Amino acid sequence: xxxxxxxxxxxxxxxxxxxxxxxxxxxxxxxxxxxxxxxxxxxxxxxxxxxxxxxxxxxxxxxxxxxxxxxxxxxxxxxxxxxxxxxxxxxxxxxxxxxxxxxxxxxxxxxxxxxxxxxxxxxxxxxxxxxxxxxxxxxxxxxxxxxxxxxxxxxxxxxxxxxxxxxxxxxxxxxxxxxxxxxxxxxxxxxxxxxxxxxxxxxxxxxxxxxxxxxxxxxxxxxxxxxxxxxxxxxxxxxxxxxxxxxxxxxxxxxxxxxxxxxxxxxxxxxxxxxxxxxxxxxxx
Length: 285
Ligand SMILES: [Zn+2]
What we know:
By secondary structure, the protein is mainly α. The chain folds into two domains: 1-125, no CATH class; 129-285, no CATH class. It contains eleven helices and no strands. The structure holds zinc ion. Residues 69, 71-72, 74, 94, 96-97, 99 line the site of zinc ion. The site of zinc ion has 8 residues, from loops.
């Protein structure tokens, strides 16, 4: 794999961590705003279908309105927007009204920084590391959105799928394009089939369509051969967490758990620990 051998590994790992912090800051915005943007759009569509006049609303997207404190709506200044550091020197409170800021923001920034630093250290500075860092970042965003809202936005799952096919075609993932293509097709198909059978037998819906699309995306990134392990691993993780939550009384009978985070976690684990199996399978089998 051709990597640009600029500077030394410590330098580019640190640079990657800093980029990751900034990307993490944006991921916090994305995770909060994307589901609300989707809801606004559904509302607008419902108004249109029902022939109602559209509700007049202030523009709402990833950039408008500017970031502000949810408690006092004071816009954040540039010095309030520095990843992790702002949180530390404001001691976790709004600089204006002192309302507490959730710990999740700096944690997500640190998590994305860790993903980027890990990818730089593992794959060296180059397109391959950038591709896998993007993969890990989108998986984290999808997991958080699924936990918050039980949604896996198409924008992210479909974007991840196409990015996986393109990265494969460019040789950035080490997966042959044909295996990537079949991975996407079979990833969607397998869960669709499981869902159809489950629905036929129980009359209930066990998984959402977003889960099919996410597994299709993972198939595109990791190749079709990773799929059995992905399904097994994510189901095991999901069952373990569900049992734990039932035991701790955190889960009511019949309450649904988002499945996206387990798929995402399995995908990340496979990307890191299974390249010998997944990427070189043409030589193994
Ligand atoms: Zn405030």
